[in-house]
Amino acid sequence: MAKIVDLLKKANGRPFFICDVSPPRGADPDLLEPARFLDANVLSVNYSPGRSARVNSAIAAGWIKANTGKEAMFALATRDMNRLALQSLLLGAQLLGLENLVVLKGDRPTERESSLVKEVHDLRPTELLRSIGDLNRGLDFKGLKLRTPTDLCAGAAIDLGRPLDREVALTRRKVEAGARFFLSQPTFDTVRPRQFLDRYEELTGEKISPPIFHGVQVMAPDSLVFGRLPDWVTVDLDRGRSGRDIALQVIQEFADARLSSIYLVPPVKKGGRRDYEAAQAVLEAARG
Question: 3-state class of 69 per DSSP?
């Protein structure tokens, strides 16, 4: 059993990678085999990407950990379950030997999807973080004692595409609610992350204490983009520069700024297929 914050401390300043993994749209274990070859410190299983029916993220993370020996965590969105379902799932995740998760709100369904599925949001992310703290103290949502408490390490997300002051205030609330680490949305330089860190210290009077894993997306000419794609990345891709080289440039910039904890996002093609080979090429070169 290994919590992300403890693994990061053991890395002692060396580059540390969390790599994003999509759960499969089918129950064939072979669909999770690519995870076996990703040389990241931790594999993070996304939660129903594309708002489609997929293997539950906690179950997929449990399979990866049990069958590959790799450390795995899972994302959990408040969008789709009430507090009873959320706490029951968290107990099941602990039973599978999982300790780490990241709490998300979840993207809203499109107008068409809203006629097929309803949002729940019984708990907001900050409330779910507090709920996890209660489980760790041995109490369920009714205040009843569990037979055994959980020992979960919960993180949260930072969206650097939103106004900084708003995101700083939300991040502060997540810290107070018990977030032990953060995953940030991908950026292609350190400007926005450093602005966020500076503004956090200005508004709160202290440096942010939980570690942040800074998002870096590996691009491909036909891959989907999360957030805003800078003009220089578009130009470089059009000129034939590989997404691997661009990602390595960004990772090096983070390393030079002493921000060496990275949340790596493999290319996502239309239809949701992911290019894990491209992500592994980045991991190999970054560690080389």
Answer: coil
